[in-house]
Automatic annotation (TrEMBL):
Name under which the protein is recorded: Riboflavin biosynthesis protein RibD
One GO MF term attached to the UniProt entry: 5-amino-6-(5-phosphoribosylamino)uracil reductase activity
Keyword tags: Hydrolase, Metal-binding, Multifunctional enzyme, NADP, Oxidoreductase, Riboflavin biosynthesis, Zinc
UniProt family annotation: In the N-terminal section; belongs to the cytidine and deoxycytidylate deaminase family. In the C-terminal section; belongs to the HTP reductase family.
Cofactor binding comment, as recorded: Binds 1 zinc ion.
Boundaries of every CMP/dCMP-type deaminase domain copy: 1-121
Cited function: Converts 2,5-diamino-6-(ribosylamino)-4(3h)-pyrimidinone 5'-phosphate into 5-amino-6-(ribosylamino)-2,4(1h,3h)-pyrimidinedione 5'-phosphate.
Cofactor requirement: Zn(2+)
Keyword Ribosomal protein: no
Family matches, as CDD domains: Riboflavin_deaminase-reductase (cd01284)
Keyword Hydrolase applies: yes
Length: 359
């Protein structure tokens, strides 16, 4: 199963919105006879890739055991049912890490395998398999994406100087690592404040990049400039989320190539909870937030942040913008409570990962 999980890890950047799944086929003699992982949307799933691999290597699949990191599907989606492919190949046993979290299909693949006389075991590798697909699980079980907020800060927690300057607080190495986290998301979310101040690209600039996450800009008044650098990323979808009735401006953004999304607003501010539901409807699994203190605070206040990805540089900036413009709180317990899930050194900086307690 650990080999299947390593294959799933390889799939993570290419297969969203599909879950990243790995599959290893072990022949009756205990040798690995085939392996595969999920391909980009619309192409073969892990099980079919592993069966094809075994066939290409001249191995018979009858009597084999399949180790797969998610329940094989039983439905005809963009590809055919994997449970049927395993049954037709004569597989004797299927070991799956997890049941499919999609409430419409959960358990159906396992039931079909069992009905065909295939032995089924569920559980090995469950924790790692779920982590690999945390966004897919979030979308399926909560109807909204997993929200990971990335912040680059100084040791005293500042994210920009009082005049707005913030480039660059962290090192090249930390920024490259940040790109790898952008790459695994389906969408990067920012605020119009950051767009106007930084003129960012917010794309993935890694040689290994195979797809660009959609850029989503919270911009109630349609203020995104038509000549910004964010338009210079070939093939990347830009979604501007606003609430103003200025049809002329909305049309100009549409003509510039944006997907323009009118969202309900309260006191002129976009309803971020409704926005996340809409992004899930568009098959966004993970949202990578890179925004300023205003939008960050609104996301925290609405209880929408699941995870913090904080790069901390060993420098002090004194006065300046915080990670999120929260508070002032009267009691310590009023602030969001997180737990650390990882601390790593990235070049001269620290990368701190923390998750909201209970998520
Ligand atoms: N160090 C770091 O990691 C980062 C630092 N920065 C820095 O942050 C600064 C910009 O911060 P800031 O001005 O706070 O910009 P934000 O990116 O937080 O954008 C804020 C704007 O988003 C719009 N918005 C839309 N919906 C909402 C909502 N529901 N709640 C709140 N805002 C909403 C508002 O404008 P409107 O009402 O017009 O829609 C608001 O003014 C810059 O100096 C930049 O360099 C930025 C990103 C990362
Ligand atoms: N200042 C700062 C960051 N800032 C974030 O990076 C954005 C610019 O992205 P791009 O135009 O794609 O290079 C900027 O607008 C802000 O969201 N990131 C970091 O890793 N370290 C830093 O010190």
């Amino acid at each position: 199963m650990s080999q299947a999980l390593a294959l799933a890890e390889q799939a993570r950047l290419i297969c969203p919105p599909n879950p990243a799944v790995g599959c290893v086929l072990v022949g009756a003699d205990g040798q690995v006879i085939g392996q595969g992982h999920t391909q980009p949307t619309g192409q073969a799933h892990a099980e079919v890739m592993a069966l094809r691999d075994a066939q290409a290597r001249g191995h018979a699949t009858a009597g084999a055991t399949a180790y797969v990191t998610l329940e094989p599907c039983a439905h005809q989606g963009r590809t055919g049912p994997c449970a049927d492919a395993l049954i037709e190949a004569g597989v004797r046993k299927v070991v799956a890490s997890l049941q499919d979290p999609n409430p419409r299909v959960a358990g159906q693949g396992l039931a079909r395998l069992q009905a065909a006389g295939v032995e089924v075991e569920v559980g090995p590798g469950a924790e790692v398999a779920r982590e690999l697909n945390i966004g897919f699980f979030s979308r399926m079980t909560r109807g909204r994406p997993w929200v990971r907020m990335k912040v680059a800060a100084s040791l005293d927690g500042r994210t920009a100087l009082p005049n707005g300057a913030s480039q660059w607080i962290t090192s090249d190495a930390a920024r490259a690592d940040g790109h790898a986290w952008r790459a695994r998301a389906c969408a990067v979310l920012t605020g119009i404040g950051t767009v106007l101040r930084d003129d960012p690209r917010l794309d993935v600039r890694l040689p290994s990049a195979t797809r660009q996450p959609m850029l989503v800009i919270a911009d109630s008044q349609w203020r995104t400039p038509l000549a910004a650098r964010l338009w210079q990323v070939p093939g990347r979808r830009v979604c501007i989320v606003g609430a103003s009735a200025d049809a002329g401006r909305e049309q100009a953004l549409r003509e510039r190539g944006a997907d323009v999304l009118q969202q309900p607003a309260a006191e002129g501010r976009i309803d971020l909870s409704a926005l996340l539901v809409e992004l899930a409807r568009r098959e966004v699994n993970e949202v990578h937030v890179e925004a300023g203190a205003q939008l960050n605070a609104a996301l925290w206040r609405a209880g929408l942040v699941d995870e913090l990805l904080l790069y901390q540089a060993p420098r002090l900036l004194g006065e300046g913008a915080p990670l999120a413009a929260l508070g002032p709180f009267a009691e310590l317990a009023q602030g969001p409570q997180l737990e650390y899930i990882g601390v790593d050194r990235i070049g001269p900086d620290l990368r701190i990962r923390a998750r909201v307690t209970g998520r």
